[in-house]
Amino acid sequence: MNTNQFYVTTPIYYVNDVPHVGHAYTTLAADTLSRWHRLLGHDSYFLTGTDEHGLKIEQAARNSGVSPQEHADRYSKPFRDLCGVIDAQNNDFIRTTEMRHQKIVQEMWQRMEANGDIYLGEYAGWYSVSDEAYFTEDELINGKAPSGHPVEWVVEKSYFFRLSKYTDALLAHFEAHPDFVLPHTRANEIKRFVEQGLKDISISRTSFSWGVPVPNDKEHVTYVWVDALTNYISALGGPNAELYQKFWPSVHHIIGKDILRFHAVYWPCFLMSAKLPLPQQIIAHGWWTVEGEKMSKSKGNAIDPLKAVAAVGADAFRYFLLREIPFGSDGDFSQSALITRINSELANDYGNLLNRTLGMLKKYRKSVLPQEVTPQDRAWSSLEEQLLSTVAEARLELVKQMKNYRFHDALRAIWTAVSAGNKYVDSAAPWTLAKAGEDKAKDLDRVLYNLIELLRVIGVWTLPFLPSKSQELLQAIKVDESTWSFENTRVEAWGTVLKGGQELSSGLALFPRVEGPLQLTRKTQDPESTAESIEPKSNKNSKSKSKDKSIQGSGQAMIDFEDFTKLAIKVAVIVEAEVHPNADRLLKLTVDAGESELRTVCAGIAGVYQASTLIGKRVALLSNLKPRKIRGVLSQGMILAAGEGETMRLVEVPEGPQAGESIR
Known about the structure:
Elements: E1 5-9, E2 13-14, H1 21-39, E3 43-51, H2 55-64, H3 68-85, E4 92-95, H4 99-114, E5 118-128, E6 133-135, E7 152-161, H5 167-176, E8 181-182, H6 184-195, E9 201-202, E10 204-205, E11 213-214, E12 217-222, H7 224-229, H8 231-234, H9 242-247, E13 251-256, H10 260-273, E14 281-285, E15 288-290, E16 293-294, H11 305-312, H12 314-324, E17 331-333, H13 335-365, H14 382-403, H15 407-428, H16 430-435, H17 441-461, H18 467-476, H19 529-532, H20 545-550, H21 561-565, E18 569-579, E19 587-592, E20 599-603, E21 618-622, E22 628-630, E23 633-635, E24 638-639, E25 641-642, E26 649-650
Parallel strand pairs: 1-3, 1-13, 2-3, 3-4, 8-14, 13-14, 15-17
Antiparallel strand pairs: 5-6, 5-7, 7-9, 10-12, 11-12, 15-16, 18-19, 18-21, 19-20, 21-24, 22-23, 25-26
Helix pairs in contact: 2-3, 5-6, 11-12, 12-13, 12-15, 13-15, 13-17, 14-15, 15-17, 17-18
């Protein structure tokens, strides 16, 4: 296993709900780990996505009067958009309705079947549609699943997996790899369950059709957990693909504790049967309550990540979730705790250190950074020794806590350096040195340089946690992006990275104070309402004369904001391009819009673009335009362009947003 490869996954989220704080927590934890390993110089790959098959989806689609695929498309989009909202940089977004996934699911089935671990039988037992799981009589609590969801008696033909065959092998793996499941309290629960003896499980269904067909038996579809868990491999292209060879099994599954059994029992056994290596680690986190109460649709108290980000910003939201509770434990989302953390730790501690430092640099040195100083400087004092000692200890503690997935303690370690910086300002008293004039000019330069250098180190350390604000800080103090590495925060590198003589920013308000109460919950579960959470509300009654004047002469009728929101404009990547077979002025484009199937779009740009030059271009696609045939070819949308005639140019989207992400 290559220790420089790091593969981290979230569970794929089920498309029967819209994202809430629990989904955001898992996603940003995985994102933080991925960013952390990139900071260490590792090759990191981060996967998330949606689980879109099963009886529950088929029933929900039927009740809504749409096809299961339409239902899946509708509910998958908010989860894809969530990544951008909370500033998560995922490498891929997998959907179980994609053909690339279904192909590998069937390959997994055939591998397990070839090993003699799948047989046809009849299943009779209690099944929970909500949990997509079977339960024995002994596991029911007051006639319901352990989750509290209702169960129904199911009798049907089914293929079974010989889970019982792997009891001893799984226990041996637990013994040989004590950190395979974290935290250890959860690992012990799983171990006790396995020690009772595993029983064969049903892995196909015939009572619904919305799933991956079982190879060579079209009457059966694959059980949802065989389907869903395989996403961690299918996203890499399967066992023979280059990405798989590169990143598997250096994989770390970040999941909620409610699905730990499927990941820590079923998944390893499926892999052993398929003769594939087991994942490196499975890390289960706890659940969030809200103001001391369980989140529920009926109470309407689920925290909406989009509203939270709109209220406090993505980085502040990230900070609170990672700082508030130990990862692995249950926690409570309290609005008062959120506001206190932001105002006390981000605005007062971190923000104050930055603002007072840049303020003094502007006042005493016209924002020009003094020449660099190192611990070898003759004037180095006990104050500097104490500061660097704290920084060195904080760095070691940060590494230790991140290895153990203790994000809250990792942030606490960073904040010891923040506190040390504020203490250094108070003890060194730059204002007193400034009053002494030339006699203390070099001492003042040394203090100012050390403070900026400390901000550089803290800025790099916080990149995985507060990516946007950390970048703002590092750019404000003119730190070359090529030096943004954990290696360059060693004490030995102090004074060797940041060059003096540069004019820095005169001020930067990273974290403004927050006042409550905040609107953080969403009353509706409609996935289309998620976009409205971060869009400004239109004022239909606002028709001021000044606004009328600003559009005179445009020759266009004005539309309400609600009309604009009807336009679904998204990022698309052109994968194929050719001249329209029946029109010389049209090009026939095949585009990837982040959906289960590619789209065909006809565009009148043949006069300004050669087809071969368009492959790979990232464009803006109006995706909900009603399809229509253009000269015999069905066009499924419109590519946006500006200009006319020879000056026409496509509206191109820069790198960053992925195919399928909304353009607002």
